[in-house]
Amino acid sequence: MICQQYRELVRTRNELLRKLRDLQERIDKANKWCTKGVDLLANQQVEKFQTQEGAKVMLQDVEGLLASANDLKLNNPREFRQAFDSVMTLESKASVQEVLKRMEDVQDMCKKRMTSLKKIAIKASRPVQPVTPAPVVSQTVSVEQKLEPVVKKKPGTRKRIPTFRKTRMESVKKTGLEDEDNNTDSNIYEHKETLHSLSDFDASYAKRGHVMKELIETEKIYVEEVKSILEGYAAEMDNLDMQRLIPEHLAGKKDQLFGNMDDIYMFHHDVFLRDLQNCENTPTLVGRCFLDRREEFQMYSDYCQNKPRSEALRQEVGDNNPFFQECQRKLGHKLSLGAYLLKPVQRITKYQLLLREMLKHTQNDIGSSELKEALDAMQRVVKYVNDIMHQIAITGFSGNLSDQGKLLMQGSFSIWTEHKLKKEKLKDLRFKPMQRHVFLYQKLIMFCKKKEGSSNIDKASYIYKSSLKVTHMPTW
């Protein structure tokens, strides 16, 4: 009984995997067919397009391409739904919808091209029309005309140039030539118009692929860079052969120096990079990757909160200590450890730029709404990380910032404060405003002075000056 159940389970699993493989093969074939169609229409030469024989050859190529679409087995929605409904997921449904839309666009352009080619390849024969010959003008000259005295032309008079009427044959020939020229010009215009719509369609598709390729390639580089830090620096702190080179102030402080970089590496190496690679052929679905992992991206806030402690420790031991120098030499890095410890902060801000570029080429297309949500989500993460980077740089505040509630916003403002005049003992406003960096919490407004020379976010420093509880704020 157990063996029979196991065989049934294996059979069901094999059937499921077979359907998934068949579905993926159909999607891949459809994408290749669309690429072949785009290349065919784009590479047809305009010179051959103007001749009847060339138009016939190109017409056969386009008709053959449309006929080959039946081999993809995507034309019957009911049959397709019955075959794959049990294995379809949201991602696979979106992939099918995207490739079907692309096939529809290519088929429409092929039909437009066929209409233009048929006008040249299949010409209607013109009926032969009878032409009445023009009357022959007699060239004989009478004797009286010969003996007629020559009359001298008066000065100032113009010589009359005789005019000739065009024969009917000439007008027929000219009209026929003009019709052929107009027909050829019209077809060339339709050809160029088709190429223009083709180029617009293919340009958006190509740009989405380019952004997706950049996203995956830079993700691979980022993962390798983080891996090199963990293996080339963090792991070496536990290497017995390297213990003699570790400075006294650095010993036993690996967590302070690297924070939760190991968690960041595991997430990107094991999870997020694979998510991106699964969307390589369907770039418009990449928004779902960010939406599904938005909670994991909050780990960057922990890394940024530890960044000042890490930076202080690194500066204390210096980049020129023997341990850092030996690790850098083994890795072959041109930059010091401080530049690589900043990589996670730089990477989290890069995602929103790539998502914005992807969204620009995916307007009103499949996955555009998820891309918008993903962009908003990553912008919130970046804002949160940016706020933390500013908040942790505050010095001189004796209270606990975690007791003040959530940080709502922060930024630089011009502040006017009131003071008492010594003689008149009256309150007055300072005439000259002061530049203060204001932090708005749920329970407190804090006024800080930005330390001069701290223009970079990672090196910013704020000196606490004053604060005002939100419950004590005056109401107007």
Describe the structure in your own words.
It contains 15 helices and 7 strands. Strand 3 (418-420) and strand 4 form a beta hairpin. Strands 1-7-6-5-2 form a 5-stranded mixed sheet. Strands 3-4 form a two-stranded antiparallel ribbon. By secondary structure, it is an alpha+beta fold.
Give helix % range.
55-70%
Question: If you compute it from the alpha carbons, what radius of gyration comes out, rounded to the nearest whole angstrom?
Answer: 39 Å
Helix count, DSSP H or I runs of 4 or more residues:
15
Q: What integer is the average pLDDT? A: 77
Give the secondary structure arrangement, pairings included.
Elements: H1 2-43, H2 46-49, H3 52-68, H4 77-84, H5 90-121, H6 143-147, H7 168-234, H8 254-258, H9 261-278, H10 286-292, H11 299-317, H12 322-331, H13 337-341, H14 343-360, H15 368-391, E1 394-395, E2 407-415, E3 418-420, E4 427-429, E5 434-441, E6 444-450, E7 462-469
Parallel strand pairs: 1-7
Antiparallel strand pairs: 2-5, 3-4, 5-6, 6-7
Concise structural overview:
The chain has helices spanning 2-43, 46-49, 52-68, 77-84, 90-121, 143-147, 168-234, 254-258, 261-278, 286-292, 299-317, 322-331, 337-341, 343-360, 368-391, and strands at 394-395, 407-415, 418-420, 427-429, 434-441, 444-450, 462-469. With 476 residues, the chain is α+β, with helices and mostly antiparallel strands. The strands form two sheets. Strands 1-7-6-5-2 form a five-stranded mixed beta sheet.
